[in-house]
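This section describes the prediction task in plain terms. A model, or a person checking by hand, is given the sequence of a single protein chain and must write out its three-dimensional structure as a string of tokens. No templates, partner chains or ligands are provided. The sample shown here is typical of the held-out split.
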Amino acid sequence: MESYADALAAEVADLDDYVLVGDSFGANIALGPAVRRPAGLRALVMSGGFAADSRRLFLDHTPAKTFGSRLTAALAADYTDRLGQVDVPTLIITPSHDRLIGERAAEIMRTGIPGAREVVLDRTGHMFRFSHPATYAAAVETFLVNEVAHAAR
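The expected answer:
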């Protein structure tokens, strides 16, 4: 996971202001640089969870090798003890129909990251970025307008 986080950090190194938005496996990747407190980071948005209702969609569109690699990286990464180092406004977007991960995953993030906010998207599962793009985009936009743009003024 750290090599993914390193690659992401290198991509944004020349930016003065940016927001990291990570969904599913990407949420883990975004969290890696966020705990390092990079100077240009203004906010963090993470979403995910794995719902049974979207399991087939995920399996149909994720090659087995990719799934295995991501699972191995995700299981090896543990940022729990460093969550308190995230010092930017953080939004956690959670699907309401999360049958496999459970509420505890979002709770750990919400309580570990100072000031983190959670939005639960009703009647959504893991792939809500694809199945409910307008709802997902509205949650991100509202957060950015209310938390990030407001803080920049």
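For orientation: The two ends are 35 Å apart (CA to CA).
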